[in-house]
Amino acid sequence: MKTLLRLLFVATLATLTARAADRPNILFIAVDDLRPEFGCYGFDYVKSPNLDRIARAGLVFTRAYCQQAVCSPTRSSLMTGTRPDTTKVWDLETHFRTALPQVVTLGQHFKQNGYFVQGMGKIFHGGYDDPPTWSVPWQTPRAPMYARPENIALTQRNVQTEPDGEPKARKAGKKKAAKTARGPRGPAFEAGDVPDNYYQDGKVADLAVATLRTIRQKTEPFFLAVGFVKPHLPFVSPKKYWDLYDPAKIQLAPNKFRPKDAPDYAILPGGELHNYHGIPAGSVPDDIARQLKHGYYAAISYMDAQVGKVLDELDRLGLRQNTIVILWGDHGWKLGEHDAWCKHSNCENDTNAPLLLSVPGMKHAGARTAALVEFVDIYPTLADLAGLPLPVHLEGTSFKPLLADPQRPWKQAAFSQYPRPAGQTGQPVMGYAMRTERYRFVVWVARNDHTKVDAIELYDHQTDPQENTNLAKRSEHAALVEQLMAQWRAGWRGALPKT
Ligand SMILES: [Ca+2]
Q1: Is residue 460, in this structure, part of any structural domain at all?
Q2: pLDDT tens, residue by residue, 385-438
Q3: 64 C-alpha to ligand 1 centroid (Å)
């Protein structure tokens, strides 16, 4: 009986492997805190020649939305193919396995279907890896945060941090200690006189290049996940990337004010930035804002060059023609818009994130699509493109049809959310945002009773693409609010593409 079972197992494995061998490889590139402001998004003052290479061979999604604009919630959602209310990951302290112990993640699904799945760098949020996702243990090189001696000295006086910017204590699970350890960190930016592989992203690129050389020997197709941490704070990069930018030409955000008539808690000033040395409390002065933007752009160019090394190796090894390349930034970022910085909100700046997808032989390489897509759609899309079955737990939709026709009608709305500890009544609230073709509509409800509405936001992207004025309370828009409320109640299930 045992022998028979073993034979059956070997036979099944052989069939799976044979079938899998014809499948495309996946190069899955995650970028931390990258907003869609670089070359292929039409902002050529930000130098991103390698991301633009993916765009030229692929499709640029201009309206891709993350499900919650902060690291762990967006990554947990993307990797499980479910939304934050299903993962129950709304913060940086919960692992999705707590609520979903048996969920099959994106990597795990590929692994179960005959792929060799390997991950490196920042894929899941720091300290919250998921071993079942990978065929071999996830790894990340350790690297110093800063290069300049005065900055190293400063961090040694302050708190020791991990390469991903998380206090060590939290990584060890000591939440209390982490809270008290969150003192001022080092500076928010630096131009280091060092080679690319001094900092973490350079080391990750080296590791990815070395891995590609060995992974190609395997008989199975591969799913290689490579996570870069820049342009996450601090904006550090080798000086040659800093020198690509002329500070005099850097434009500051035109809307340095909170959205008019929005609830106070809708957008916060950006506490994460204020943890860094040299950032004063309150509104960030223009001279520092300019240096921050300079650092952010330089960090993009640095990360871009590391992506380029991985793409070069893929080309050199002749793997490109059978490899799907996908690159996503985990959420957007505010660089002074609304007099605020960082992510952590439901606004367009924070929820709209970069997404590039290149599939060998695709018909519309180099095209753009403004179709509304959600990060929760990435799992089913990659599975669909690889010819794998779609697990029933998924809450997204494969957008493979957009590759054949980037202009076709698609989802009627994209959904994001963000909690706040206290609404207008002092009770915890969740803001559920819906982005339609024309509007952003956010309904803030009590966490414990979704029928209790704390506040509503409505922005008209036709007349107000910066989301500067909340129109929800204006009587002339009452009928529109009612109509959007009905659509909002129907939720993501009511916004699926009509096939
Ligand atoms: Ca992030």
Answers
A1: no
A2: 999 999 999 999 999 999 999 999 999 999 999 999 999 999 999 999 999 999
A3: 15
In percent, how much of the chain has pLDDT > 70?
90
Q: Reply yes or no on whether the pLDDT at 499 is more than 90.
A: no
Is pLDDT above 90 for 41?
A: yes
Which 3 state secondary structure label does DSSP give 376? helix
Positions marked active-site:
71, 125
Number of domains observed in the structure of the chain:
1
Count of alpha carbons within 13 Å of 357, Cβ hemisphere only? 26
- Cα dist from 238 to 190, 297, 396, 480, whole Å: 8, 12, 39, 50
Residue 291 Cα distances to 164, 189, 245, 296, angstroms: 21, 8, 11, 9
The CATH number that applies at residue 208 is 3.40.720.10
Q: How large is the angle between the packed helices 286-316 and 49-56, nearest 10 degrees?
A: 50
Q: Vertex 271, ends 264 and 248: CA angle to 5°?
A: 100
CA–CA gap between residue 115 and residue 311 (Å, rounded): 20
121 CA to centre of ligand 1 in angstroms = 13
Does 251 fall in a domain? yes
| Per-chain mean pLDDT for the chain | 93
If we measure between CA atoms, which residue out of 337, 330, 336, 367 comes closest to residue 352? 330
User: Is residue 418 domain-resident?
Assistant: no
CA–centroid distance, residue 298 to ligand 1 (Å): 17
Q: Nearest 10 degrees: CA dihedral of 212, 216, 219, 225?
A: 20
Q: Do residues 73 and 99 lie in contact, with contact meaning Cβ atoms separated by under 8 Å?
A: no
Q: What angle do CA 9, 10, 16 make, to 5 degrees?
A: 90
| Rounded Cα distance, 475 and 292, in Å | 40
Residues within 5 A (CB) of ion ligand 1: 32-33, 71, 330
Cα torsion 243, 248, 249, 255: sign: positive
Residue 357 and residue 324 in contact, taking contact as beta carbons nearer than 8 Å:
yes
Is residue 112 one of the residues assigned to a domain? yes
pLDDT band at 22 (very low <50, low <70, confident <90, very high): confident
Domain encompassing residue 181: 24-404
pLDDT tens, residue by residue, 75-99: 999 999 999 999 999 999 999 999 9
The arithmetic mean of pLDDT across residues 177-201, rounded, is 80
pTM over 0.90: yes
